[in-house]
Records
---
Amino acid sequence: MISQRIDLLRKYLKKNGIYAIIVPSNDPHFGEYIQDYYKCREWISGFDGSAGTVVITLDEAVLWTDSRYFIQAENQLKGSEFILKKIKVPGNETIEEWLLSRYANDYKIGIDSALFSFNDYNSLKESLSPYKVELIDDPFVEIWDDRPKKISKKISIYDIKYAGEDTTSKHKRLISLINTEGEFAYIVTSCEESAWLCNIRGADVDYNPLPMVFSIVEKDKISLFCNLDSVTDSDKSTLESMNIYLFEYDLFKQALADIPAHYLRIASGDKISAGNYFELTKDGSKFSFDKSRGGYITNLKAVKNGIECDGFRRSHILDGVAWVKYLKFIEDSTSSGKIIKETELAHKLIEFRKESEYYIDESFEPIVAFGANGAMPHYSPSERFSVIIKDGILLTDMGAHYIFGTTDTTRTLCIGEPTDEQRNDYTAVLRGMINLSMAQFPKGTRGSSLDFLARGEICSNEKIYMHGTGHGVGHYLPVHEGPQSIRMEENPVVLVPGMVQSNEPAVYVQGKYGIRIENLILCKEHIVNEYGTFYNFETLTFVPIDTQLIDKSLLEEKHKRWLNDYHKNVYLHLSPYLNFEEQEWLMAKTAAID
Amino acid sequence: MISQRIDLLRKYLKKNGIYAIIVPSNDPHFGEYIQDYYKCREWISGFDGSAGTVVITLDEAVLWTDSRYFIQAENQLKGSEFILKKIKVPGNETIEEWLLSRYANDYKIGIDSALFSFNDYNSLKESLSPYKVELIDDPFVEIWDDRPKKISKKISIYDIKYAGEDTTSKHKRLISLINTEGEFAYIVTSCEESAWLCNIRGADVDYNPLPMVFSIVEKDKISLFCNLDSVTDSDKSTLESMNIYLFEYDLFKQALADIPAHYLRIASGDKISAGNYFELTKDGSKFSFDKSRGGYITNLKAVKNGIECDGFRRSHILDGVAWVKYLKFIEDSTSSGKIIKETELAHKLIEFRKESEYYIDESFEPIVAFGANGAMPHYSPSERFSVIIKDGILLTDMGAHYIFGTTDTTRTLCIGEPTDEQRNDYTAVLRGMINLSMAQFPKGTRGSSLDFLARGEICSNEKIYMHGTGHGVGHYLPVHEGPQSIRMEENPVVLVPGMVQSNEPAVYVQGKYGIRIENLILCKEHIVNEYGTFYNFETLTFVPIDTQLIDKSLLEEKHKRWLNDYHKNVYLHLSPYLNFEEQEWLMAKTAAID
């Protein structure tokens, strides 16, 4: 089957005089999750991991993927002509190296003009020279027969009582960032940016409450390109009252071409597709890049207003209640000798979450990882491979969307008796998480300055984790957002009050276990004095932290104080929503340690 | 007198059709200290602070300086036509703003082509446009009648038993960094780079053991431009045996012009003067920038070899012995009611240092600052203004060059009874200093990732210090060196074993006191395991840390453990060199705290 598909694609290449095509994993909006319609890389290769790039030439087929997917890819590529290239493994060329070693005179490489950003296109052109890199239309339209349909679920208006700011005000603030005289058209590719700006939500992809939309922002209006059937007439009028005008999704490209000549076109080079960029600028029209890191709207969106912060707080109470039931369920099950599986647990937490009328959906693919599975930071249990839980370390990383906010929480617990190494690692992770939670820092501090407060504790155990300590979190929007981060790597964006991020140091012991503790933290103004302005963090998450795994001799007084205060708060906030038995359980779990 | 000097300079400007001249504070080598010969800014303005820039136009005279020098500058400019512009104070234009507001058609600005780097010249040209920025020769040659002579003290060969690596080997490693086929000429402007590469030392400026030299590095030889009379014939032969050939200092510019056409010229844009850059490239010769941060030699020099590290260790033992005598002297004096002054103390520590035959000189201008003076991070006592020491906080920051290494140590102590605020601040500074001393971090870590380990403790007290936590330290070379640093600001240079830097968190309470504790720390490899390679620091400094100022309730066990271990080591390393009375004193000062 795969070989027939490859044949079809090769016919397309030959017909168009192309030597090779690069098939990426994204859609035209460059978001984290994509619809089945866009899963061309999966269709052509049979590999269904979330990350990977395929190159098909006239006589070879190769998949590049990262270490998370080596085993899965090997299995799924078996029997096909596909060769697997392991990213960052010595002896495995990069896409560019591999392609360059095959160059012959006048060879062309095709890339879908909608699936590569302008900046990516430019850097490919440079790194693949002397190849000619040609922007092509989606070839799978021709060759993929039973291609799934695009999905357009209902687009709903996000209530101002949750959003806290109306589009008119957001629009005004965006205009002042754009800061240009005269008429302009600011191009928005990212669905989450349009959703935030227009106060709309959808359900067109998994886990992200987003409609598939583009928008064009002008001084006095916003044109929103979407499936018109997904919006009720009454909502259309409401949107128009905010100067948001709706057009069919497919008219977007034409609309770019139709922008009046004297308008200044503005877009982020990382976000606008190469195809749209050239559409926009083809008659030598005035163009200017949005050079802010992540783009203007992402920068506005990252700073939550008071209503959004309150929504986060409410969401975390609801979520905490579900977590308490979940953690109690695990304890009850394992202590009674009941056999449970990873997948079953994931369903269980979702079930408890669903008890709240405000629950919408999970905010990412659930991670319930037992024992050695926990050592894979992005492990997701599937019905086929779910592991039975017995004695050992269990890591759960799950998040939810509630109508007024988003959560993302990791808790690690031990079934049976932990080893000294496990206690030691767990306590280091906890120290790191608490250090960052307690940080006070001057205005102007970047996340990279704070990363080592958490990471350093794990390094003190001569271990490391290879991911960041914190990512930005959207407000009933994608759980991973920019522009700020708390990582080793330099990121020039400074933390400001209103930014929400995760705080998730970890330890992974290959083949044995993974430990991660994750709360969400909100940056706030702490104090202004003669030295300047200081910020700190409010912890949003209310879920008990397993104290059985702690080696108390490794905690300082300040850590114990923080943990005891935290647990007091967890009990205070959650107990009103629990029955007596649950309250008793939570009381025990949140008892102060000494 | 100043007005006559200004008149002379204005005559020069008129004669040359120049509207304004910018007079900076540096010499042609861009080092930290300059000879009197180059103090033109001081001569023309009367202001003798270390930092400041003068602009003289046909009808105005202005000095820009920073907050350290506001009072001094006001005093020294009094009675002259000079206006003072306070850098970073609202209402004070920058040099560029001030000049631009005076632009008239065809106005030219002159800058000495030897005193501005190529990069500085370029950015001035851009920021001062539409002015024409003209590179001129030193105008003070004509107008400064009794100008001091240039000083050329003896240049001596630095013994391989201290340097640990001969020039042949350094030259080879430099060539491999330059990494170019064919012939090249690498231009070295910085005296410390030439001194390191050629294993020579001098004494042509204060505090830096440097001769004033340029060099040109080729594949098979190094041309060193210096005062030939400063080198003995026997040393000349020794240098020639290392393929270092000596030429008169003044022939350097001509030598740049004489480089064969087919040679690739290489220099750092921050280090080569604009004049030399244009000399080097005037016939369209091949040129390439050294784009490494700080330059190739600075990068090689920053990583100390084993002999250099041992030299640092020895220096710190000798220095520790002098510090013990110094600290005991303070205690004896103050407890017996003797009146002592800041300047007297500085002399006293130098006197104790001189007891070692290996002592050469101070490594920077001594800082002995009592009470409110300590709140000025760069305060230096002078005979005129030295303060008498009574009850209060005393900060001493002094460093020395020994023949085999360099020191830089700060200790803070309290005479009389400290306040709670002082104890609290002192303990925060100590915690920060210890946190950084104990850090373990993965290979690839930048100094900016570690800065907050120290700074964060002071922020927890809602205070900050405005300087970096650590600077690189030269090996019997300038005490401040790059390319690494431990600061809030991003610096892409990663820390590697062999780098020596300071560890000096601080608190400054305006009008009251300053607290700083400073050790030097050496980056070392700690462990290699399945997670990778980890580094840590060895503390080089051996000077007791005042425990009277500590609020022990604010120290964790790990801090106490570190401090007690440290003090045990201080006693162990220093006591063999002390008399019985000093040993007893040190034993008490280094007693373990609980």
---
Amino acid sequence: MTPLRKNFGSDNVGPVSPAIFRAMEEANSGSVPSYGNDPWTHRLETVVRERFECPSALVFPVATGTAANSLALSALVPPFGAVYCDGTAHIETDECGAPEFFTGGAKLLALPSRTGKVSPEALVRHVEGGRALGVHKSKPAALSVTQATEWGTVYALEELRALADATTHLGLAVHLDGARFANAMVTLGCTPAEATWKAGIDVMSLGATKNGAMAAEAVIFFRPELAEEFARRRKRAGHLWSKARFLSAQLLAYLDDDLWLANARQANAAATRLADGIERMEGGRLLFPVQANEVFALLPDAAIARLQAEGYLFYPWYMPNGDNAPRGASPVRLVESCDLEPQDVDGFLQAAG
Amino acid sequence: MTPLRKNFGSDNVGPVSPAIFRAMEEANSGSVPSYGNDPWTHRLETVVRERFECPSALVFPVATGTAANSLALSALVPPFGAVYCDGTAHIETDECGAPEFFTGGAKLLALPSRTGKVSPEALVRHVEGGRALGVHKSKPAALSVTQATEWGTVYALEELRALADATTHLGLAVHLDGARFANAMVTLGCTPAEATWKAGIDVMSLGATKNGAMAAEAVIFFRPELAEEFARRRKRAGHLWSKARFLSAQLLAYLDDDLWLANARQANAAATRLADGIERMEGGRLLFPVQANEVFALLPDAAIARLQAEGYLFYPWYMPNGDNAPRGASPVRLVESCDLEPQDVDGFLQAAG
Amino acid sequence: MTPLRKNFGSDNVGPVSPAIFRAMEEANSGSVPSYGNDPWTHRLETVVRERFECPSALVFPVATGTAANSLALSALVPPFGAVYCDGTAHIETDECGAPEFFTGGAKLLALPSRTGKVSPEALVRHVEGGRALGVHKSKPAALSVTQATEWGTVYALEELRALADATTHLGLAVHLDGARFANAMVTLGCTPAEATWKAGIDVMSLGATKNGAMAAEAVIFFRPELAEEFARRRKRAGHLWSKARFLSAQLLAYLDDDLWLANARQANAAATRLADGIERMEGGRLLFPVQANEVFALLPDAAIARLQAEGYLFYPWYMPNGDNAPRGASPVRLVESCDLEPQDVDGFLQAAG
Amino acid sequence: MTPLRKNFGSDNVGPVSPAIFRAMEEANSGSVPSYGNDPWTHRLETVVRERFECPSALVFPVATGTAANSLALSALVPPFGAVYCDGTAHIETDECGAPEFFTGGAKLLALPSRTGKVSPEALVRHVEGGRALGVHKSKPAALSVTQATEWGTVYALEELRALADATTHLGLAVHLDGARFANAMVTLGCTPAEATWKAGIDVMSLGATKNGAMAAEAVIFFRPELAEEFARRRKRAGHLWSKARFLSAQLLAYLDDDLWLANARQANAAATRLADGIERMEGGRLLFPVQANEVFALLPDAAIARLQAEGYLFYPWYMPNGDNAPRGASPVRLVESCDLEPQDVDGFLQAAG
């Protein structure tokens, strides 16, 4: 019997899904042209176009989410431009300045929010204010949204569409950081097209690594004219694999048979089960609705101590909006990997107990 | 029976060595800390230090050679600095400006040569000439040498040491592009330490991808003070894998049991066998001594036509030093992968007729 | 008789002080070595060292404040580093991403404040929080303070020293944006040394353009080891004048006979006179104490209308901290050039009614 | 009586032309809008459009030639692009990597030549060769030509037009480094339009500093669509003067009354007089035809010694194309400033003996 999984620290600590590993193994046969001129990479384009109902979409596999986000942004914003995002966005807080590096020094303008979601009103106000100052301000060029958000919530389609109205009005391109896009899809229950280009997304980073792949993300352009010369950007960043088939094979296995949704469903279910348990826990409180595979919660300090004593791993977090935690409890982040089983969650709740 | 291998176009078209694939599979079990805080990555450091007899060496795995070279250079040269290299160097000719990107705009100063090797005299002359012009010139900061060279030859140890004398005198750091370092090691027959830090190399890109890995190269610093903050450089370039164990596992399998040398020996042997055959071929002529796994040769045009008709893949090349090819023959590059068998080479020679 | 000066929009709209123009004219004679090897530039170094009581100071004249600030920061912070500053800092809000450009993509981390001054506590909290996240965060490398601040106030020496304690503890270098440093000096009444390196400043941008020069600022390093290779940085940014004597001559005239203080005193006096008038004005209110040559004030909308009708120029501004303006009044910024006379201020107040 | 001018080292060692100084003085009066919204800058646009017969031309004054060249190139070439130029080009050899900095790391590809001029055949060969390698090569994006060249020669109009045919065919934008454009104009005797946009130039750096200005160059776009957002590029490089009128006033005086041509005529005449003298000198030999204000010549070593003993300043140079100097003579560069009089040249020749 598998021992209980106790790592709730991140969704990148777990193993690779067997189907993805198998696909890499099957790709490991014979000589094929390098640098993406291989059958796997070609088929990946076909599959993505079908899944997203976008016959002109262009797909560029890379190995990391930071590369996917930063390369995508570099295609949208000039060095003297600005990218708007939420103050919690991964590109702003967790990528060591990669967007600035890849864009040649563009400016990230992080909008504060209570929710981790960009509000159309704040966006319009900031962009118009900036534009009024002309050359003294970086040129407003793009919006980046994160779906699911960094607080584990999901933009509703109408929220995305309201942002799309604003960005169309403002003339901004829109990037979606989809490191946990599959988790959001499970919650939205709509088609991938509805959740992306039909809602105004121009280019997305489709994450797979956090959801069962080894190291694979896809930059997908829904407006191919934005991808002009993207291949060169990827090459000169060292993100073009010579044996590209092994990246594409991962992504194919991810999309084939809807493994991406199956994995995300499992992770989201674990999160929901955990959230339910925390709500029933004396002194436990959710900080945000749980809509993907992350739980942000207040736990009693005693529960935290018991969990740590039992070997559970997770990160202490911070209260949103500068609030103070109530006495005797502390905020934590609990991330659910796609290999978590119900008994793993129950084990956590029992240990917290 | 395996059909004959007919791809002599590159050493990145072949499959992954079984032992390397197996190592990734074995690494695929359970939760481990991400971003390199895993047992595989820790053991890799130990193994590299042992193999290179350098207890203070620091090792940073990345997925591509372009990333390894450019990141390494960015640690050696300021944005206003210059990197000297041979005119044929991969960093100068094949990386789409990646070194310029990673260094923030440093200048590559490519020295012409007849041999693909940097000469100490030319280096000293150029560096001293540049320094005399002060701030109008980029600051001479580093030398990058390629071992084996882009013409398939190998710097002798005394050649490396003569360069080391020059760079010590000039105050330049030295980078080694070791995309085919294992192939050079087989030819040199010395220890890894003798071929690197004992010969003045400060940091190297140790290639594995062209020699049997899926996507793995190691940046190895022999002077750890140069690696200060290298971890941040790698992260902000999107080259830090969250599931880093799968990069390190490849490199461990590569070094364990000397797979790197075994693979290189097989590739070099194929190259030598091919070179011998070409020398015996009427109208065939080697352009350079074959010391690694690349053959640059003149082949009769009729032979080239026959090979292409039989499905052999390889690139037409150019004559070194602006020479003209003799009438009726053309230069080609023939690269030997580490999975080539003697019969594959014989098949080629027979088809060339 | 000179007509009334009516431009309160900026301190860069006015003419060049006669003494500065005369100095350029005197420099315009005969052949002298270019690129700063001229007597004016040499004497400038001597004069700065004396004025600032810092015999090892290094001085680099440039033509604009944006260049001075960004070049200075590029010497303090690596491309993967972070610069902390107040949310109102010119480098953050008015330089079109120049610091990001010159540093190769470093991150500006703007701390919110009610006052336009960085608080040591906020700085320590942010830096320590960032460092805890390791390579995922840009490396905290420098603090930039603005003196006088963007709200027209002046850091007291003890405030600067408290920041110096924090930055020493945190290992940050400190830059001072002194676009209006002379205005602050007049208010502080201390020595230049006390206001800079004795208060922990490592490098400053000493502004002259806003205070009577044509186009001249000096980057002054109080720790010469930080200026290593700064000359190359300036050259490759196109900020090394071939006829450098004309930059140095401006700065010499600025410092000789304490013209910088005389000009600043005149501008500050105009600001104080204006502030006094506004405080007496029905419905007028100062938003900040007036300690330099900028007045931020609420004016009755009717007064604003009368001023505009009379041809007075100034910018509508915004309330600090997201406050709302009271009904019937609006915030404005009134900047006093160094050529403003008392009657110009009185004219303004009279027109405001 | 003025003492003899003895500085032949550069054309940036001399004083500012009186008319240019006077123009700055006249501009120094009253308050005018800053950052280029002033009458001088507006009139400059009109004057340039007239002089160049190009009603849609856009003009951006900056203070240095390095800034003009690098900013112009940054508008033509993406970070992953390449600029072709002659191996002697100032952008390649004398700007400390500024083009790489401003373009965000684009690659300069310097073509060797015997003449300092780019040949259309070499350009086509290199560009087509590079394009064949796809993403592994920087994208060929622009050609930069220098007029007058770095060897003091001048491209004939038909030479420029042949290059224009090549660049049109290749899809490259064309930049002209016109640091000594006025000197070339005097030799060509054609209209400015014929020497620029009618000959395929898209953007030029019009130099004034070497030809009588204090610090002023104009970036002129003949295809305004290339200048989109150029104003932001200039601002974020710190090259937008707040008191922009003083840059524009210099350039206006330079073009008004054809001062630029008068100055260049004087410098060219000095060069021609000097060249004639050298040709008559025993052991003297010109290395290139003298078509502008630079003389590259072999002088007897004894003559060089005599000149130096008399206080003449000039730089030892190098032989073109790696040739060796004949025994007893050495190559020198002699640059003629626009304030040189015939007697200054005669003094030089007499001292040389």
